[in-house]
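User: quick one, sequence for these tokens?
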């Protein structure tokens, strides 16, 4: 989760959220040079940003949750985008299939539905779209132009649920399962369930 405890509160400081809240969507770019550097993707500015407009800056909580999902469900060289529903995840997959810039060779897009439950809470359903890292820029176009990805508040809730429970052992059958599977962690079977939906994009 975004830790604002030690962040400067002045809006004159590069990268500070405006207002100073964990889910703010505006960020301080105090000088003209900072604005130009942001547009040009200068790492000095990008690395300093604690937040940003959701379609153009992936919130730190979403980045953290994506990293967990890539570790738990991804194969070597895979990245992911996160969605709140099966419909939006499948829309991402269709975009990756049908985009004219995609080369003719098949590009794998795997969809994972991951339901996380905390004590006394309803399950939080997370839909994970996994793909080869070299297609990240193309996937990011979908994220930017549709706004269908998960919100920072969704990610924060999911991270809180992860923090409440012990780590879940990654199922060994993920990379080879040919059909829809129900996967459970023996130590957390009543709290967490996961379905793998192997789907492959064809150009």
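Assistant:
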């Amino acid at each position: 989760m975004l830790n604002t405890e030690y962040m400067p509160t002045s809006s004159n400081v590069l990268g500070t959220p405006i207002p100073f809240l964990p889910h703010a969507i505006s960020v301080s770019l105090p000088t003209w040079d900072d604005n130009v550097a942001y547009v040009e993707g200068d790492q000095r500015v990008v690395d300093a940003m604690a937040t940003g407009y959701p379609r153009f800056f992936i919130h730190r909580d979403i980045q953290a949750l994506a990293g967990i999902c890539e570790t738990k469900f991804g194969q070597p060289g895979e990245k992911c985008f996160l969605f709140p529903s099966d419909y939006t995840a499948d829309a991402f997959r269709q975009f990756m299939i049908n985009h004219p810039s995609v080369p003719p060779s098949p590009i794998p897009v795997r969809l994972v539905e991951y339901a996380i439950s905390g004590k006394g809470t309803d399950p939080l359903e997370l839909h994970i779209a996994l793909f080869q890292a070299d297609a990240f820029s193309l996937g990011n176009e979908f994220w930017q132009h549709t706004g269908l990805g998960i919100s920072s508040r969704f990610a924060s809730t999911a991270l809180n649920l992860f923090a409440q429970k012990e780590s879940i052992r990654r199922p060994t059958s993920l990379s080879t399962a040919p059909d829809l599977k129900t996967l459970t962690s023996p130590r957390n079977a009543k709290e967490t369930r996961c379905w793998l939906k192997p789907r492959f994009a064809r150009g």
